[in-house]
Write a structure and sequence with these properties.
Layout (H helix, E strand, L loop, with lengths): L6 E10 L3 E9 L5 E9 L2 E8 L2 E9 L4 E5 L2 E3 L6 H13 L1 E2 L2 E8 L10 E7 L2 E2 L11 E6 H10 L5 H15 L1 H7 L5
Helix pairs in contact: 2-3
Length: 190
């Protein structure tokens, strides 16, 4: 491990926004040379695989940075003072109009390790109960319910290209097929 470690020499915050901060660091490399590293600090996020009546709930929404409507698993950023579990309970209700008392943590995801410290916490929810759909004031969403096989076909055709959603759908597929993995996580897919 030590032969890979880069040691920070100094760090400069070059941008600070509501969602993220951008830093430019000077680092000492393991070979004794120096270099610079630009990276984003992000407070983290959570994504959930909501399983309802044997189908996966996805949300359709416009994503400004890429100027496209995307089909994604429900997700959101972790607010200050909040843990990932609280975030995903809130986001499940806001984005799908469902709640669940059967939410299980699966695996953290590091989506952009080359330029960000962001961690996305992956969850699965079963036994969903209808509640009110209360999207944020700045979100326009449509909930789409799809059989897992159809969602996976959309991954392979390129219709679903969001990385956290692809990872979540692959997890759902693996959980569907693997009794031991379901037992390990205490998940019943009905």
């Amino acid at each position: 491990m030590k032969k890979f470690l880069e040691t920070p020499i100094n760090s400069e915050k070059v941008f600070s926004g509501r969602l993220l901060q951008v830093f430019l660091d000077k680092v000492l490399l393991p070979n004794g040379r120096t270099s610079t590293r630009e990276y984003i600090k992000h407070q983290g996020a959570a994504v959930i695989i909501p399983v309802h009546d044997g189908e996966i709930l996805l949300v359709k929404q416009y994503r400004y940075p890429i100027r496209q409507v995307m089909l994604e698993l429900p997700a959101g950023k972790i607010d200050p003072g909040e843990d990932a579990y609280t975030t995903i309970q809130r986001e499940l209700g806001e984005e799908t109009g469902y709640t669940s008392e059967h939410i299980v943590a699966l695996q953290p995801i590091h989506p952009c390790v080359g330029y960000s410290n962001e961690i996305i916490h992956l969850y699965i929810a079963t036994d969903l109960q209808k509640s009110d759909l209360l999207p944020d004031d700045d979100e326009t969403l449509e909930v789409i319910s799809l059989p897992l096989n159809k969602a996976l076909e959309m991954v392979y055709s390129g219709e679903i290209s969001d990385s956290k959603t692809i990872i979540g759908l692959f997890w759902a597929d693996k959980l569907r097929m693997d009794d031991n993995l379901r037992k390990r996580f205490g998940i019943s897919l009905g």
